[in-house]
Automatic annotation (TrEMBL):
GO cellular component, one term: membrane
Top-level taxonomic group: Eukaryota
Protein name: FAD-binding PCMH-type domain-containing protein
Gene Ontology molecular function: D-arabinono-1,4-lactone oxidase activity; FAD binding
Length: 465
């Protein structure tokens, strides 16, 4: 299971990809003195359990050699380690080193495109390269990486680690790791090898067709200069974000579902009218289909490096923007219908229960077709209000939790490892048929458990708390 393998061993991927401009969103790592005495959080500024994670130090290697020596030094001292990225977009506490004295290794400056082989249709990149960088560089060479997530700000190391994916049933693979050919992993080693081991992994032969494919849905001479500049990922004025949130909090406080329904209507119709940010030509949306180049359509995220003052990504915690939970899981295609019917039964009982979800664009469903998701699946992405005050329940919390439990326990769905509340990981490891092999591989890459944390061990069923 590639998905888990790279995630929890958290050994360092130096896939033969940081950030274009890290300026606008807040940095996830803050240190009281230069690179020591640090805290780390995610891009939302809060983990599901609202804890703050600490690390004694952060290292910013800029080359493979520097990375190797950082890992060797930390291994020699048996320090706990975790890999951090430029923005830290995963919701769960994957990035927290065990204890308070750990070391964070950031891939912020490991952001180089090392090689592009147009003929072989491959790219060799460092793991801190962002999706935006990758898509743009690939396009310059006439290549494309199909079925990626839709948000520019993710790094390749992060994407591979959590099994992130796009959507398709056409091709045979819809996850980023399905396009991986080789992976160079820098991990701890014994004294005899200088405390560091560089593993080079070759992936299964059928993946070798290409890592990055030329987008060939329509002939390139088909006219069209389409652009997807997602409305949700544009910089939004802080004042607007603040007032949307204040209204949402007020409606929650008043338990006024009809009010949520009305605001959801406004938002939905605005999105529909603006075609979610799609345009056919020069910012004008004239109708579907939107035809254009892959690199202009697959992903977006202009809020990432907007230099507009007083505007931010919708979830930026420095302004009082949106604050939410995400429940994201994938369910076998064969069971999806039955799950949806169960969900509909619940909604029939309480028709207003889902209005709050509509404020976050409703339930996003994507198709999943991969070698390791065990079977063809539909991925459900549910985003919903989270109170800033942990003691205050959400409106219709019971219904949403029922949906979550149906999915996770009745239908045994697999969680998205980069999203979800902790509940989603309870017993999750037992749902993977290759879990045992995964744990063996984890042992090989990280024999001293330096990348393990109490939290991760619990999730992997290794240690009960
Ligand atoms: C706005 C938004 C949209 C999203 N859309 C999608 C989507 O469409 N589809 C989807 O599947 N997911 C989506 N996600 C989830 C996202 O893909 C995952 O959370 C992803 O893991 C985040 O990548 P990151 O670079 O921020 O990594 P982080 O969250 O910083 O790291 C994730 C994990 O990977 C480890 N890691 C990172 N780099 C390395 C490395 N080089 N070596 C070893 N370990 C490493 C970290 O230690 C951590 O455990 C979205 C997230 C956001 C915020
Ligand atoms: C570490 O930072 C915290 C604040 O985040 C501060 O209270 C503490 O004194 C610092 N410790 C050292 C050793 O600098
Ligand atoms: C998917 O895989 C099958 C069997 O390996 C193959 O016959 C088919 O052509 C593949 N489809 C695509 C779109 O790659
Ligand atoms: C587009 O290219 C295809 C082949 O690549 C060709 O058959 C077709 O005539 C071209 N169409 C136009 C409008 O040029
Ligand atoms: C997307 O929209 C934003 C805000 O409207 C704008 O600043 C940005 O230039 C657009 N991005 C592209 C690639 O057109
Ligand atoms: C956010 O809201 C809190 C109270 O709800 C307020 O104290 C704070 O000043 C607000 N911050 C901004 C940036 O508006």
């Amino acid at each position: 299971m590639v998905l888990l393998r790279s995630k929890t061993t958290s050994v360092f991927l130096l896939i033969s990809v940081a950030c274009y401009s890290c300026s606008p969103p807040e940095k996830p790592i803050k240190c009281s003195s230069e690179n020591t005495n640090c805290t780390i959080t995610n891009s939302y500024g809060a983990f599901p359990d609202r804890s703050t994670c600490r690390a004694a130090e952060v290292a910013y290697p800029t080359t493979e050699q520097e990375l190797i020596s950082v890992v060797a030094e930390a291994t020699k001292n048996r320090r706990k380690i975790k890999v951090a990225t430029c923005f830290s977009h995963s919701i769960p506490k994957l990035v927290c080193p065990d204890g308070q004295e750990g070391l964070l290794i950031s891939t912020k400056y490991l952001n180089h495109m090392l090689k592009i082989d147009v003929e072989a249709m491959t790219m060799t990149i460092e793991s801190g390269v962002t999706l935006r960088q990758l898509i743009n560089e690939a396009a310059k060479a006439g290549l494309a990486l199909p079925y990626t997530p839709y948000w520019w700000g993710l790094t390749i190391g992060g994407l591979l680690s959590t099994g992130a994916h796009g959507s398709t049933l056409w091709a045979n693979e819809s996850s980023v790791h399905d396009y991986l050919l080789e992976l160079q992993i820098v991990g701890p080693g014994g004294a005899e090898v200088g405390y560091v081991k560089v593993h080079l992994e070759f992936l299964e032969p059928f993946h070798r067709q290409s890592i990055y494919r030329i987008g060939d849905r329509v002939s390139t001479n088909t006219s069209g200069n389409g652009l997807y500049n997602s409305t949700s990922f544009r910089p939004i004025p802080s004042l607007e974000l603040g007032s949307i949130r204040t209204l949402e909090e007020l409606l929650e406080h008043l338990s006024y579902a009809d009010g949520k329904y009305a605001s959801a209507r406004t938002i939905t119709s605005k999105l529909l009218n603006t075609a979610y940010g799609l345009s056919n030509n020069d910012d004008d949306f004239t109708g579907y289909p939107v035809i254009g180049f892959y690199n202009h359509l697959q992903a977006s995220g202009t809020c990432l490096n907007s230099h507009r003052i007083n505007s931010a990504c919708a979830w930026d915690c420095r302004v009082n923007g949106s604050f939410f939970h995400q429940t994201t899981f994938s369910i076998s295609l064969f069971l999806a219908k039955s799950f949806i019917q169960d969900e509909q039964k619940l909604i029939e009982m309480e028709p207003k229960a889902m209005c709050g979800v509509e404020l976050y664009n409703g339930i996003l469903m994507r198709y999943f077709k991969t070698s390791d998701k065990q079977e063809d699946a539909v991925d459900f992405d549910i985003t919903y209000y989270r109170s800033k005050n942990p003691m205050i329940p959400r409106l219709y919390e019971d219904i949403l939790e029922e949906v979550e439990q149906l999915a996770l326990f009745k239908y045994g769905t697999l969680p998205h490892w980069g999203k979800n509340r902790n509940l989603a990981f309870d017993g999750a490891i037992n749902k993977y048929k290759n879990a045992r092999e995964f744990l063996k591989v984890k042992e090989v890459y990280d024999p001293f458990g330096l990348f393990s944390s109490a939290w991760a061990d619990q999730i992997l069923g290794l240690k009960m708390v």
